[in-house]
Amino acid sequence: MAAATMGETSIWDDLRALDNTSLFFLILTCVAFIIPVFLVLPPVPVRPSDALLQTHSLTGVRRSKSGLKDQHNTAVHAPRDGKPATVQSLFIHPVKSCRAIEVARARVLPQGLEYDRLFTFAQLKSPFPVAVDETAAAKSAHKWEFITQRQFPRLATVKVDLWLPDEMKFRRQSLKPSREAFLIVRFPWKEAGWRGLLQTVLAKLAGGAAAKPEREILLPVDFPSEYEIKDKGYAFEDVKIWKDVVPALNMSSDLPPELMLYLGVSNKLGLFRIDPAKLREVYRCAPVKDDAGYQPVTGFQDAYPLHVLSLNSVQKLSEDVPKDDDLKELDARRFRANIILSNLAPYDEETWKQTRFKPGTSGLYNDAVFHVSCRTVRCKMPNVDPVTGERHAREPDRSLRALREVDAGAPLHGCLGMQLTPLFEVDTNPHFTSEKSSGSGSGLMGDEEPDDGRSAWVAVGQTVVVEERGEHVYVKQ
Question: Over the chain, what is the mean pLDDT?
Fold first, then answer.
């Protein structure tokens, strides 16, 4: 014990004996050693996306490669004699009303593009107002209703990442390859006070100077099994989307309470996954079952499986939309289309009744055929900036109503874009055969045979051939 005390005393004596210069260099040496360790192994919590990075790859087009990076250049996208319209960009929206994912190609299924509108947020609303003579049960009944950027514009800033399994990464990890894909839903969030300051520092250590603290939510892409539903506490409940009431899977147990606060939702917030076995049947302007060869269906899309938009039509509208500090350019992403076309005359798409997308420069080998079902009747949601989530007080809604009231079936409403229903060769060509087709599958997501013939592909670079033209009259729900 005496020897240990003597040793400790001599160490402190040595430190006291250091002059200021020596002490400075000692501290500098320690800092120089610690900083590289912090840079390589920052002391930040492991996020779900960090774990996925080991076995999965992020899907999407880099911002520098976006098909819309020059969307405001009218000369680049102007129609040219003898050249067909082309697919300029593709977008999927895995979570309704949240940030879109731009992709280079996508598979077309009966209900729309693969991974599109799988989830929707909803709020639990009371039946207000109710009649005075209603029963107590009716007065206390609550119902789930979907929400969008129209009520909660901050949804535009909720980012969604699609992670697909990477076989090579699995092999490098000596793991058996998996087909399981995931979504990461991210939203800005930091606590108040010193905790928020710490979160900001840790976010910048992990992601660079521009990074901000976020919360992440991990969601499976595949519809959960019965065991997973029970284990996670999910439940099947009805959710209202416009006038439809859809039985869907309530996965609200996966939501952190901070998301409700961030969005500004005062009612209970829910998250619903569309059930691939209970999709919404589409009628109105869609082709009937006998003509399409199958009953058109959709998931959490507003009304029809796909939405196509002409960049030239957006540019034309933008010329007439008043600009100010809050709206300098009209971004095509405000209109949340799946397929964005270029190189066609403004509003020409409104005369189409059936189109065929041919390979062009896409690298695909087969065509994709669509019934052009009706115009897209616009609400005020395009007033929300898709990047900032800020809602403009008037535009482009006011200009759409003033300039684009063009459909006799939608008086007092502006229209921009067209709704599509996919058509498949297995239904339209009696001589169609496929080695992959057994004739027993439905072609719907979640089916054991998703490639039985009712699927196709779209990709950037495809050319558009108009096979039929005609008039459109919108049919309200």
Answer: 87
The length of the chain, given as a count of residues: 477
pTM listed for this prediction: 0.86
Q: What is the pLDDT of residues 411-420, one digit of tens each?
A: 999 999 999 9
Name the token pair of 188: 């800005």
Whether the per-residue pLDDT at 408 is higher than 50: the answer is yes
Nearest to 311 by CA among 333, 281, 327, 280: 333
Contacts of 144 (CB under 8 A, 6+ apart): 122, 123, 124, 125, 237, 238, 239, 240, 250, 270, 272
